[in-house]
Amino acid sequence: QVQLVESGGGLVQAGGSLRLSCAASRSIFSINAMGWYRQAPGKQRELVAVMQSGDRTDYADSLKGRFTISRDNAKNAVYLQMNSLKPEDTAVYYCNARIVGVGVRDYWGQGTQVTVSS
């Protein structure tokens, strides 16, 4: 098991930047994938970025070049740097940990609100 706590959300003007943090309750070194998802009002949760074992990263096509996922194994933390924010980036952002064993288990944080004003 792993507990995840997000932080760093807030209100920012369009064009601004935010850095989200996700603190894990245990070592993330052996976790198969750590990622960020977001959910806007009235929409389904969608992938933002994921970092898999070996530091392979994948991003939603529409976010490439503006968002960057990174991790610090020593701090058991994952980060999401968001630049050139747009009003359509407004959503609750969730940290995810995926552990693959006998089956696949997903763990989620409580989410952090990001609001981008125009």
How would you describe this structure to a colleague?
Strands 2, 4, 5, 6, 9, 10 and 11 form a 7-stranded mixed beta sheet that branches. A 4-stranded antiparallel beta sheet has the order 1-3-8-7, with no helix packed on it. The N and C termini lie far apart (40 Å). The chain has strands at 4-7, 10-13, 18-24, 33-39, 46-52, 56-59, 67-72, 77-82, 91-100, 104-108, 112-117. It is mainly β and 118 residues long.
Summarize the structure.
By secondary structure, the chain is mostly beta strands. It has strands at residues 4-7, 10-13, 18-24, 33-39, 46-52, 56-59, 67-72, 77-82, 91-100, 104-108, 112-117. The strands form two sheets. Strands 2, 4, 5, 6, 9, 10 and 11 form a seven-stranded mixed β-sheet that branches. It has a four-stranded antiparallel β-sheet with strand order 1-3-8-7, with no helix packed on it.
Which key terms come to mind for this protein?
118 residues; mainly beta; seven-stranded mixed sheet; four-stranded antiparallel sheet
